[in-house]
Task: structure prediction
Amino acid sequence: MFLKLKSFLRNMSVFSNPLFQTILLAGVGAQLLKIVLFYTRTKRIHLLDIVATGGMPSSHSALLAGLTTAIYLNEKLTTAFFVALALTSVVIIDAFGVRRTAGEEGQILHRLIAKAKLNIREPHYSLGHTPLEVFVGVLFGIVAALIVVGI
Result:
């Protein structure tokens, strides 16, 4: 029993890692902010809102911008920083590029199905993000890294 507890506590050291703390603050913080903003706008909340995609701010952009910033603040211009920067760029472009376009096409499909009164299950779609939502997510992530790691 004691060995299991000791092993568990040793594995908990991940919570003292500033990169992990930044990821947690940026990703979870942005998602919680998204829920609060959604609630203030609609006065409703649903359990699925915790993992909802799209909306203000982009939690994926926040998470990766925070990670990239934290790596830079810890290590400067290392290989890890450039890998994180490349992944962050892909996520940001995808968030308001490909996913946004696919989401807009999903909205059109919903309207066509409703207009044609088809008796089919409507497909699920994710709207993606506007450039502003992505920009705010990136800022949120950078601020999270600055809070956790410092300057």
